Amino acid sequence: MYNMKKVGMRGVFVIRIEDDFDLEKIADSGQCFRWQRDGDGFRIPFRDSLLFIRKVGPQDYEVDCTEEEFDSIWRPYFDLVRSYRAIRGKIKKKDDPVLFEAAKLGQGIRILKQDPWEMLITFIISQRKNIPAIRQAVEAVCRAAGKKKTAKDGTEWYMFPSAEEIASLSDEALASCRLGYRDKYVRAAAEAALRGEIDFRKLSALSHEDCLVELQKLYGVGIKVAQCVSLFGLHHLDAFPRDVWILRVLDEVYDGGKNYRFDAYAPYNGVMQQYLFEYYRNKNAREVSV
DNA sequence: AGGCAGGCTTTTA
DNA sequence: TAAAAGCCTGCC
């Protein structure tokens, strides 16, 4: 799927990605909230690693890690073993012109394989917040509880905190993250994880449906958050989170969802959800701004 | 029993 | 001031 060539020392090299891959669209797609723009590229934290990546050609990207790190960490993270062009090709204009248009504009979006614990806390925090507010709150939690790291080039950043680290925060420290009523959900999730009531290694062995049931046992986790954790953290690509935007498009375009062909796009309904989400959110934003 | 209204903290536009 | 990648509680 991609070829690599080294262009220098210090673990900096260029990869060629020949599939759908658009950093800007992924960054704006509402699945990741810690990417930081840096010059003409992005800094991407994931577990204990920080990647700097920037586009240097139509299909070429410079990354600041070793080939081994890219293969073991970042290739799975970006889900580069899967062809999103092929998934997009399942959509026929005559069958669904709206989804076709959404996918055309959304070409380059991928479903990242993110850390499920981070996704759980992040999407608990996301409730009734817009994307800038989610970013701010998540970063506050990382600064309050996460380990401080220094990248090779001296950049300081914070890891996403573990359950232990979140549970050990004082009420005052957690309150300083300004999560509002969600802070009790976050603490409850951390304490449930410490008691072994939520274990992502066990969860990843379950079916998508069983995952949703287990996740919704957590205080403050409903169907929407459970679907997001399943899609973005457990990489169940058929998960279909219904947020306000998706409910809106299902209502306005698909007669409340009755005319949307979930069976036609299984097991990739989650990818289609991302196209529709971006399309409808941007469409609405354009209409508002005009 | 399950569907629905009201409330919830804070930020953003 | 309304809305924001919702969920919980209480009521019927």
Automatic annotation (TrEMBL):
Reactions that this protein is recorded to catalyse: 2'-deoxyribonucleotide-(2'-deoxyribose 5'-phosphate)-2'-deoxyribonucleotide-DNA = a 3'-end 2'-deoxyribonucleotide-(2,3-dehydro-2,3-deoxyribose 5'-phosphate)-DNA + a 5'-end 5'-phospho-2'-deoxyribonucleoside-DNA + H(+)
Domain HhH-GPD: 125-278
GO terms, biological process: base-excision repair; nucleotide-excision repair
Enzyme Commission code: 4.2.99.18
Keywords: DNA damage, DNA repair, Glycosidase, Hydrolase, Lyase, Multifunctional enzyme
Range of residues in the leader sequence: none
Pfam families attached to this UniProt entry: HhH-GPD (PF00730), OGG_N (PF07934)
Domain of life per record: Bacteria
SMART domains recorded: ENDO3c
GO molecular function, one term: class I DNA-(apurinic or apyrimidinic site) endonuclease activity
Protein family according to the UniProt entry: Belongs to the type-1 OGG1 family.
Protein name as annotated: DNA-(apurinic or apyrimidinic site) lyase
Species this protein is from: Schwartzia succinivorans DSM 10502
Species lineage: Bacteria, Bacillati, Bacillota, Negativicutes, Selenomonadales
